[in-house]
Amino acid sequence: MLTKFETKSNRVKGLSFHTKRPWILASLHSGVIQLWDYRMGTLIDRFDEHDGPVRGVHFHMSQPLFVSGGDDYKIKVWNYKLHRCLFTLLGHLDYIRTVQFHHEHPWIVSASDDQTIRIWNWQSRTCISVLTGHNHYVMCASFHPKEDLVVSASLDQTVRVWDVSSLKKKGASPADDILRLSQMNTDLFGGVDAVVKYVLEGHDRGVNWAAFHPTLPLIVSGADDRQVKLWRMNDTKAWEVDTLRGHMNNVSCVMFHAKQDIIVSNSEDKSIRVWDATKRTGLQTFRREHDRFWILAAHPEINLLAAGHDSGMIVFKLERERPAFAVSGDSLFYAKDRFLRYYDFSTQKETQIVPIRRAGSTTLNQCPRTLSYSPTENAVLICSDVDGGTYELYQIPKDSIGRSDLQEAKRGPGSSAIFVARNRFAVLDKSNNQVLIKNLKNEVVRKSGLPVPTDAIFYAGTGNLLCRSDDRVVVFDLQQRLVLGDLQAPFVKYVVWSSDMESVALLSKHSIIITSKKLVHQCTFHETIRVKSGAWDENGVFIYTTPNHIKYCLPNGDSGIIRTLDVPIYLTKVSGNKIFCLDRDGKNKTLVIDATEYIFKLSLLRKRYDHVMSMIRNSQLCGEAVIAYLQQKGFPEVALHFVKDEKTRFNLAIESGNIQIAVASAKEIDDKDHWYRLGVEALRQGNAGIVEYAYQRTKNFERLSFLYLINGNLEKLSKMLKIAEVKNDVMGQFHNALYLGDIQERVKILENAGHLPLAYVTASVHGLHDVAERLAAELGDDVPSFPEGKEPSLMPPAPIICGGDWPLLRVMKGIFEGGFDSTGRGAVDEEEEGADGDWGEDLDMVDSDGLQNGDVTAILEDGEVAEDNEEGGWDLEDLELPPEVETPRVNARSSVFVAPTPGMPVSQIWTQRSSLAADHAAAGNFDTAKRLLSRQLGIRNFTPLKSMFLDLHTGSHSYLRAFSSAPVVSLAVERGWSESASPNVRGPPALVFNFSQLDEKLKAGYKATTDGKFTEALRLFLNILHTIPLIVVESRREVDEVKELIIIAKEYVLGLQMELKRRELKDNPVRQQELAAYFTHCNLQMPHLRLALRNAMTICFKAKNLATAANFARRLLETNPNENHSKAARQVLQASERNMTDASQLNYDFRNPFVTCGATYVPIYRGQKDVSCPYCTTRFVPTQEGQLCTICDLAVIGADASGLLCSPSQIR
Amino acid sequence: MAGSPDHLFNLRNNFYLGSYQAAINNSDLPNLSPDDAVERDCLVYRSYIALGSYQLVINEIDSSAATPLQAVKLLALYLSNPHDKESTISSLKEWLADPAIGNNPILRLIAGIIFTHEEDYNEALKHTNAGGTMELHALNVQIFIKMHRSDYAERQLRVMQQIDEDHTLTQLANAWLNLAVGGSKIQEAYLIFQDFSEKYPMTGLILNGKAVCCMHMGNFDEAETLLLEALNKDAKDPETLANLVVCSLHLGKSSSRYLSQLKLTHPEHILVKRASSAEDSFGRAVQSVA
């Protein structure tokens, strides 16, 4: 049982879940009805109008209503939004036990101790039916969820099923209700509207509860005989099916579970029992110490139950609903029902992969808890609580998406098991506090003790484990047996790694801790409610869910809400603004969220101001929250750009030191306080102009004078003096005079103010004797005496420079300045003030964070080292033994050891197995390769083949640096590798030449021919001819292609050679014509043939061999040449037809089929004797026999040869 | 079996996986036991040897150093002076005959390496076959592979797997053997190198290993990418160059640049030797056929 919420109160007699909101109503024996939010754990409201215990309470499905019934015989209908009782239904004559709304009709059914069941219409507020028949208290009555039935239980030991279908007609015409009212009395006594359908007898004592099955025709009842009975019904009858015994006292309530095949009952024996509805055996019992149970309620939609007892109630669920899942790249593997399933994030398709073992339902909560996946081995580990913790290892078949049979999974005991490397997994052995490292055959490879008492292990990168103990987690390196990181953390439930494995989020019940991979703490988030799940987005923001929110955490510790949730979800992946999750039914869902806020904050944090800029420009981010955030985070200059309100703007401008905007805002606001603050800030920055302006606006003359004094601006000071004079401000006048050092003025002021002695003293001290005398005369006897030896000291020094600004404090000019000021807001006079103001370098902020981190790691390292030391002592002792044991063994062995004879090198195997020349060449066995070629193709001249041989040989081995400083290992590369090839069986060598390369060359050759680059083309075709002897292909069909290729290449070589020859023969027109003519008889591609024909036609026409030219023209026309060419051909034809003669005799008879001799370039007509090249099949006149073939330059003309062998398929 | 942490783990790993400079740089480990310190020094000097700094090793190890270090110095002497191997080999033999130090695993290891260079596998195995350290076993695997006796190599590997299946050398030896026997095992070798590349920083050795696997699987394009990455790390690495030559040939690209580079920097490389001997044998064969 997973308790979700608990209350302490008076005895709870009635409970009802709200359909949509996380609310539950509890009616108490004290008469109070409480409305709780069980998710937040708060009491929302209480309704206290009943007099005496309230036994029944029920929420309406859709309206903001609930109904209650109590011992005051009253049924009350409440509106919880209005916090009040709407009306009271009166009629029952004794305690009311239960009340229930109908799911669609405006009805309420109530059961009462007055032995009746009543059905009320709450819209007309009338009783529409009274069901009589029970002859003792009716303890409960409820509507069937779909059909027109009511089931009731009574202390008369019966359960009754009532047919209420006839009431529908009544209800259909509510206007009739008033009429009906009069008839009610008749109905009361044997009315026809609601009739008893079945009476179920079988309990020996009073029945406390009866309930329908939500879908099947079943009823379950619980009674004071301590039994739970199961009943079945059909159209005509109902009968008892089975009895569930086990409760030790009166069964108070019982019900079917909506989603699972179980029955839940509770009793005054202080227990809740769960029964298997099919096997009818007890599954589990939950006991309370002191409280008898009275009532059960099930949530109509989600998997929650509630039970009321003597001192409160509990909201709980029976089974965990979190699906076990693992994310790997773009795939999600998860367990649902009895299958392992696969979900592809990119295509959003899900498939069922393999069936997994279903836990025998002997107890609850046996479904998979965690799942771990190894992508390379395509294997899945599933852990569950079966038998106190077991894991199962499934291999996902290659052609995965199948309905393969239930494979016998490899399994073993252990509460957590996870993959720690490609083909290794760790299983926690809690009792010995060690992990077993196993391979995929489920064999233990290694054991490793754990540094802390561990109750669960999680993945922490390859070869590492994250071990959880009660109050801390450590990252443990299994190979080095080193603790890499250690952190105090409240009981961590889930661990989520970022995709780069650099950060990890540790999820506890109510908190999230984000740390680096070595558990260096970064930040902690606390929640008041449960943390459900989390996932990292690509930017390093951690997104998590609580039961009702999706939230984000930024690396700096800021967090916020992204959106609210109706039901809990389990995040699997976050990708951009898409959130992938599993819901409680194990269905994959995709939510689209607005990621703007956290991306914005993240960009700020990362100082990606360009992003911030574009986000500000392109999205509507404004709002007090953002401004406050920016201000708080020290980005007033950014916030500035969001704000329209002048006062806020002014404040932000001052804070960010942006004087121009502050001035603009101050002008708009124009009140004394703001001017004053502007002045203060401007003074701080040293912007005397603005200070002056601000003082002027506030008419703060004294400050202004002082400013002028400091600035040495005597001119303005004297102006100030005048202003003071005009204003009749004697003190101001005096000050200004003092600042100016204007003695006469001062004397004058003092005199005017009547301070004659002072005026006299001033005058005489400063040597204004005439004035002094005048004053002395005026004063007469009162001439004051002077202190002796005082020099006049009240003379201000003369200013060195005057006016202008002081060097300005450097104000941070962010990227924003340029970007936003251009919007035109608040452009102020002094545009360039920053330019002359730079004092020098900006202060380099020492990165205090970095420093601290460094220190911390240093300390950590120290700590580790210290630890190591302690253990070092042990190490030595361990190590002492082995050498002694080993020494004799070495000697003993070396005396008997006989080194094995070297095996056969792969290249030798190649030559033995193959009769293909290429294989021999690759093996480096050039001798045999040449013999083979000589035998097969009559090749005698190997010089053109040299580079091919060498390349084949070089390409046959790769090089592996194995042991350091030891010689390199060379490895034979084999061709035709496939995954299923068995090891140790040698394939033939991989060859550096293949057929497709030749195809490329052929195309290149064609192109060169078309372009008229005959030498180049000739080279390419020759290369093809030279490579083919060393080509190996697989199939017979390809062999034919190779042979075809020889012919093509040969024809071109011959043709091109003739063409080149023709060009050399400038002075022999007859031979030229002949060669051009023969060229047209080589087997060429159509475009090339056309070119050859045109060529021949032109040459012959020019040489006045009109008949021959006409022949070429005709042949050219047959090839459908383009317009120009065909026009020329027709003209030649026309010209020739007039005079079908040849000027000179050619050795060329186009009517007689012939081939051209490859050496002498003369036609060999059909029937004439010839010899041919055994390789390239070029024909020659017999005199050429025994010579080297002039076309392929390889074979000897007329030599014996067995033919081209270029495929193993030819040998088989 | 909780055992104490293994201080030299990272150092060894770096060395085995060919990040020699990292091994040298991170060798300053405090509080080592005397034995560990000697092993550390051996690894560091062997890293220098692997980097070609023979003279440094020869100069730094003086006659008072421990036997293992002397052995390492011997290796440096052997490799630094290809023309005067005899004296090195004779002193090596002398030491091996000395019962007091003849059984030192490092000395035996060095003997194994030197005799393997001499292609005297019987002599090499005489000293290494008994095993005793993972390195000796790994060297055995390599010698057997060179002798084309993968059956023996496999037996050695079994021994290593029984000692520590997850040891870096076990994994490496497994990959070597997988490559040597070929077939479906190539895939496994690839996965082993892949694992290394995920677990540890990329080294030329790992990249070459992956590339060789790719080549054996016929995937020359990927091999070329990997090799070019390796070339970025070390432009003079002989294996990278040699494999690039092979790879380019298969891709139909010109290999002459890499080949001449290799000939310049490592005239003794097996590929260069093979190429020149092939040329000779071609000439001979022409004569014999003609």
From TrEMBL, chain A:
A single MF term (Gene Ontology): structural molecule activity
Subunit and interaction comment: Oligomeric complex that consists of at least the alpha, beta, beta', gamma, delta, epsilon and zeta subunits.
Every Coatomer alpha subunit C-terminal domain range: 813-1212
Subcellular localization: Cytoplasm; Golgi apparatus membrane; Cytoplasmic vesicle, COPI-coated vesicle membrane
Chief place where the protein resides: cytoplasm
UniProt-listed GO biological process terms: endoplasmic reticulum to Golgi vesicle-mediated transport; intra-Golgi vesicle-mediated transport; intracellular protein transport; retrograde vesicle-mediated transport, Golgi to endoplasmic reticulum
InterPro entries per UniProt: Beta-prop_COPA/B_2nd (IPR006692), Coatomer_alpha_WD-assoc_reg (IPR047312), Coatomer_asu (IPR016391), Coatomer_asu_C (IPR010714), Coatomer_complex_subunit (IPR050844), Haem_d1_sf (IPR011048), TPR_COPA_B (IPR056176), WD40/YVTN_repeat-like_dom_sf (IPR015943)
Region (Disordered): 822-841
Name of the molecule in the record: Coatomer subunit alpha
Domain COPA/B second beta-propeller, residue spans: 340-583
WD repeat coordinates: 47-88, 89-130, 131-166, 200-241, 244-285
Acidic residues bias spans: 829-841
Membrane topology value: Peripheral membrane protein
Function description: The coatomer is a cytosolic protein complex that binds to dilysine motifs and reversibly associates with Golgi non-clathrin-coated vesicles, which further mediate biosynthetic protein transport from the ER, via the Golgi up to the trans Golgi network. Coatomer complex is required for budding from Golgi membranes, and is essential for the retrograde Golgi-to-ER transport of dilysine-tagged proteins.
GO CC terms of this entry: COPI vesicle coat; Golgi membrane
Keyword Oxidoreductase attached: no
Assigned keywords, A-Z: Cytoplasm, Cytoplasmic vesicle, ER-Golgi transport, Golgi apparatus, Membrane, Protein transport, Repeat, Transport, WD repeat
Zinc found in the keyword field: no
Domain (COPA/B TPR) ranges: 612-769
Coiled coil (UniProt feature): none
TrEMBL record, chain B:
Top-level taxon: Eukaryota
Cell compartments where the protein resides: Cytoplasmic vesicle, COPI-coated vesicle membrane; Golgi apparatus membrane
Pfam annotation, one family: Coatomer_E
InterPro entries in alphabetical order: Coatomer_esu (IPR006822), TPR-like_helical_dom_sf (IPR011990)
Transmembrane portions of the chain: none
GO MF assignments: structural molecule activity
Keyword Transport carried by entry: yes
Topology of this chain in the membrane: Peripheral membrane protein
GO biological process assignments: endoplasmic reticulum to Golgi vesicle-mediated transport; intra-Golgi vesicle-mediated transport; protein transport; retrograde vesicle-mediated transport, Golgi to endoplasmic reticulum
Chief place of localization: membrane
GO (cellular component) term, any one: COPI vesicle coat
Keywords attached to this entry: Cytoplasm, Cytoplasmic vesicle, ER-Golgi transport, Golgi apparatus, Membrane, Protein transport, Transport
UniProt record similarity statement: Belongs to the COPE family.
Functional note: The coatomer is a cytosolic protein complex that binds to dilysine motifs and reversibly associates with Golgi non-clathrin-coated vesicles, which further mediate biosynthetic protein transport from the ER, via the Golgi up to the trans Golgi network. The coatomer complex is required for budding from Golgi membranes, and is essential for the retrograde Golgi-to-ER transport of dilysine-tagged proteins.
Assembly behavior: Oligomeric complex that consists of at least the alpha, beta, beta', gamma, delta, epsilon and zeta subunits.
Protein name: Coatomer subunit epsilon
